[in-house]
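Query form — protein DUF1232 domain-containing protein

QUESTION: What is the three-dimensional structure of this chain?
INPUT:
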Amino acid sequence: MAKWLLGSLFGRLRRRGWAVQRIGRALRLFVPMTRDVVMRRYRPVPWSAFAWMGLALAYLVMPFDLVPDVILLTGWLDDVVIVGWLLTRVDRRLTAYRDWKGEAS
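ANSWER: The structure tokens for DUF1232 domain-containing protein are given below.
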């Protein structure tokens, strides 16, 4: 059963490679964007990106989840799905920053 579940999970990830790519891009660009905002090199400030990232971090550290983490695989899986979804929202808000940096979308 666990083998089938992992195979199904990896199959879904392969089909949704765009989402994994967006999550990675959001994580890779958020810290440099924050640095550029703090150093006043980049304006306007993408407050919505900070809000979505704050929600993602809060959900990770919050002791209450939709599915408790004590339910091993399912509890962690809901964290991955919800935080991943929030990080895709961060990536959407960083489009103007990517254009400013000259990176391809």
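ADDITIONAL NOTE: The first helix runs from residue 2 to 15.
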